[in-house]
Fold each of these.
Amino acid sequence: MSKIITAVFDGEVLRPHTPLELKPDQSYAIAIDVEGVHSRHITVSPKVRFGKPCIAGTRIAVEDIAVMYLQNKESLEKIALDYNLSLASVYAAIAYYYDNQEQIDRRRAEGKAFAEEFERNNPSLLQEKLRKLQGEGAN
């Protein structure tokens, strides 16, 4: 028998609108409307971070959270505390990342490749001056 129950997540607990009649030692399937969580905590605007998905009300991109968590091994709790974010928004960012991982990783790789090519084609004036000074000092 299937039954649809609506509930609200208050940041800590999933609270159903009507009492649930659950039996001990029985499995239950739960489907969650992640889009509602995404739209409440994640925004995309061409005016903010060039259209990268960001935590609502901030310029902190989903990919920034993913890098801190997955590569830098920072806990989600520490990220929330360090950047004055709600824990729910940080978890929503990670959920959004996993739901859109291929697209976010591809865009990040393209940005990195562009930056590397730009640096190769446009050397720093300071680096050029240092090279000249080092070359003059060798003579």
Note: The mean pLDDT is 86.
Amino acid sequence: MTSGPGKLALKTFTGHKRITVDYQSTNKHIVNVRRAFLETIDLSTSRARQANHVLSQAAYRMQYANNFSALTRTAISPRVYAANANYSLLRHRATLMPLDHTLTGHSGKVMAAKFLGEPTKVISGSHDRTLKIWDLRSRMCTETKFAGSSCNDLVTSDGAGSTIISGHFDKRIRFWDIRTEMSANHIMLQGKVTSLDLSRDSNYLLACVRDDTIQLIDLRMNNIVRSFSHESFKVGCDWSRAAFGPGGRLLSVGAADGAAYVWNTHSGRLEAVLKDHTSAVTAVSWHPQSGLLASVDRGKRAVIWGDL
């Protein structure tokens, strides 16, 4: 197990409040969301490329759509969706960051948003205990699903976007078929679900849970196949984000002690405890093709880690 302050830290960024992080599809940049800005950071120079004052509240999740031409039918560039605390979804062109859409309709904080198979549909999850499906052409909500509990994160588990998986405050992971109103089934855990992540082959689901565990679920059987925990690992907040590594062999999650923990999903072994933060680490994101890992904390700091 690798441990120790700064051992693998390659770059650090500071000065951002309430940040989350994701790697852009070009692999050369990360997008960093602070309280009122979406910001793209060039990893080669460690400098911000764009920063737009577009968010009135903190942002919790974002997602890229790699096929921008399918969204705009004219340009070729990624787009990004941000779910924020102002009860709305915001869509941006990642190269220039103009605001395209503001989709309003939730009555609580919007915690997650994902594209639904096709580039004209998005699903969002909120603390108003609903999931909403949006048509980007009409900019209207086309369907509302009533979950009965605040939604903290969601994923879509097939290419068509017909199956939705959502994680909730009532300790349940719910499975939805968009062709029906009610959830098909659910899995009960031992704590609030703070985040979900799907493996690339869509066979496994990663759930970060407020009982200070990470649960690995085999979606082919809907069973928990492995649980990850450590005596020093404590989930830092209700929206802490865990993530699979690019090949699915590793997972990472931030902790209340200011470290990013890395486990081997095959053996269950704790591979590394990465210490360079001084406050709770709230989100992590892996480089899509390498072992680089980005982590951010509640103290305005982002760190890029290597050699994992």
Note: The longest strand covers residues 118-126.
Amino acid sequence: MKLRGIVGKLWLAMLVLVVGVLGLSALFQAGILEKIYYEQQTARLVAQGERLAEILVEQQDPYLAARQVDLLARLMNASVMVVDPRGLVEHWQAMGMGHMMPYMGGALWPRGGRGQGAPWRGGANDEQSFQPRFGQEARDGAPCPTPLVSRGEGGSLAAMMPFDREQIQRVLAGERVVRREYNPFFNADVVLAGIPLQKEKQVFGALFIHAPVAPLAANLKALQQSSLYALALGALMATLLGLLLSRTLARPLVEMDRVARAMVQGDFTRQVTVRSRDEIGALAQSLNTLSRELQEKISALQKIDAARKEFVANVSHELRTPLTIMQGYTEAILDGLARDESQRREYLQNILEEILRLRRLVDDLLDLRRMESGRITLRKQPVDMKALVNQVVERFAGVAGEKGTILEVHLPEVLPPVCGDGDRLAQVLYNLIDNALRVTPAGGRVEVAARQVAGRVEVAVKDTGPGIPAHEIPLIWERFYKGDPSRRRVGGGSGLGLAIAKQIIDLHGGEIKVDSEPGQGATFTISLETATMDNEKLLIK
């Protein structure tokens, strides 16, 4: 896999994406999840504390209140303390802090076990009470509750509490205080919550909860290991995907590159074998289409160039022959080789015939060029094909008689007119009959026939000449085409008659074809649309 190649770049991009996403995800989890976890623990602790505060406010039995405090402390593994409005401790359940108590001035509960003694009650002269139980006198000579907020150091619990005097006073004033800090005793983070005990905006005391938060180190380490495993797996999948892309993406591109390089070298035969239906397959199909189109265009250009060269050669040959003849007769006249005036006039007549031949050649070339470029305008009108055929055949009657060729005409009594240019259609018939007479030997036969077939008029010119081989039939419409020597031009033809005839019929929207077998002669047939009423109205307009 080349790093500079498209597959290498895709692999590198996927690898960076996977590593980046998983790395950012690990950082996010390590930071955000820890924060969310602590927030959830704090919310849970505060919710439990508020629920206990509601119970303590409504609870009339001090013993049941102490049981509720003990239950919450055990459930949350927390230290729970209840004080009255004067800051005197009513209940204190110190879960997990038994080893710390000796260093805090001894046991807090004079009677009963650790955290299990009966609650202390306030004296009879207390101005504020924590429900009626806080205003009752002490029974059995029990001492007063231990003050939490005291003026002096002796007997004060303020030094032991995680809350300072100001925060305790804020809680007793009805404000809830929550914070998180590190505790060296637990060697962990702890959540501290102070919740006022109040009802109808009257404060009856405060509830203080001091609970360690379960450590996240083990969970975070497991999460980091999972992230590393996911990172390694993502890198492996990116590598495998890169290898897969090298087969599905790089190989077709390499093959298309080879085909394109071959096209630069002029080889348009190579094709891309990609068969996928995605963008790569569409690109390969476009490249194959481009190759075929270029091959066809280049072949057409080569044919045009070959035709141009052949045309130039044929025109040169057609011009050279009459020019050579004229030069010979002119030099003979100038050198006085003519024996008498009649021979001199004969030489001049031959020169005139060659000049007329050159003129016909030039006229035919100009006509053919105008037809091929579409610059010729047909003067269409209803044409009587029966009269037109008779007119053209009469012009060749003398030529056929001199040559000893039989020229026959077979026309029906009624032949509908066709829509076309009479002069151009006469030119077509002239070329076809002229070719037939020139290739038909003496004693042969040339037949001209016409008929109506399915709304069209067909005119056929049949000769008894040597015929045309099947492989030459598509080529006879080319300019100056020369096939079998027996059918080559003899006399004054220009070699452009069939090419001009085909162009004229095509301009009329008709059809011209030839049926021939070697030794059996040839039949040229033209088919034209009859002049219907709609055509006549169009011609009048």
Note: The chain has a mean pLDDT of 76.
